[in-house]
Amino acid sequence: MDSGTPDELISPSAEDLSPRSRAAFLEPHTHESLVLPSAAAGLPHSHLGVRRRARRPQPLLALNTVAFLPAAGYEFGRYFDAAASRAGLSLAQPPRAEAPPRVRTRPEEKLSKPFPFVLDIPAVPPMPFERAFRRVVLKKESEGYDSLIGRYAEEAGLDPRLVKSIVAAESEFTARAVSPAGALGLMQVMPATAEYMGVPRTSLFDPEENVRAGTRYLTYLFARAWKRYHLEGVPYAKAPAWLVQRVIAAYNAGPRFLKHRPLYAQTRDYVRKVLLFYRSRVSALAAR
Predict the structure, then answer these.
(1) In the predicted model, is pLDDT for residue 110 greater than 60?
(2) Quick one: which of 278, 45, 279, 27 has its CA closest to 166?
């Protein structure tokens, strides 16, 4: 076993250093060292007389620590030479680029944006819808609420044909219809929803009060959709097709379906049913 001193613990010689570091290495040390007059007495450090050492130059201080570090001494010379060559380097962060000015989108441009959700409405209605269509057409009540629907739709800024299509899909124009979930009347409004819209729950079998509650809730859904998709300035009656489908789905299954989320199978069928009624003569309103 070699008992010599490992090479990495040997302090470097002057020949190992760069010219700049060699000058600092050969400069005589003018600093004062610690004086411990009471060290032999075993006193604690608080009783030792310590004189302050003079501030030594930074390169010299780094070179004198080489003997206590495993790294080779010439690496320190390389460090100081590189630091000198980068003396003009600034550590300040570069200025942040200014954000481009926000351009306001016109209403017609908002309507032309790509839509996030759409259902295919069949050109040929399926057989279940055909049966429902025949039932609705044969009902004399299918035109009995046109003036009521048209008045409340106009007050809310809604498409009256859309409101009538929802009535046809919800209750087939049956004023006293009751769903298994507890929805009531022409537009199948839940009692809690009616009270939230300012209509007493006890009056939901009244066609006028029911249509008033249903159109208010439909307006509430349109307002939420307009805010979510930034369509301020666009009339509700000119809503894009994909957003009309979202509002219809939310009327059936809840406002959370205004967002990008998969629809229940029953809700998809409901949306198709409403829009098939909308395309048919069922949604036509008699002249007032």
Answers:
(1) no
(2) 278
Checking if the pLDDT of 108 tops 90, the result is no
Stated pTM of the model: 0.60
Choosing from 170, 195, 209, 232, the catalytic residue is: 170
Instruction: Let me know whether 16 and 140 are in one domain.
Output: no
If you count them, how many residues does the chain have?
288
Model confidence at 28, pLDDT cuts 50, 70, 90, reads low
Cα–Cα distance between 133 and 280 in angstroms, integer?
9
Same domain for 161 and 27: no
Is 170 one of the catalytic residues?
yes
Number of domains the chain contains: 2
Q: Which residues contact 248 (CB under 8 A, 6 or more apart)?
A: 166, 270, 271, 274, 275
Q: Nearest 10 degrees: CA dihedral of 143, 149, 154, 160?
A: -60
Average pLDDT over residues 72-88: 50
Q: Which domain holds residue 127?
A: 107-283
Q: Are residues 66 and 162 in the same domain?
A: no
Gap between the Cα atoms of 258 and 264, Å rounded: 13
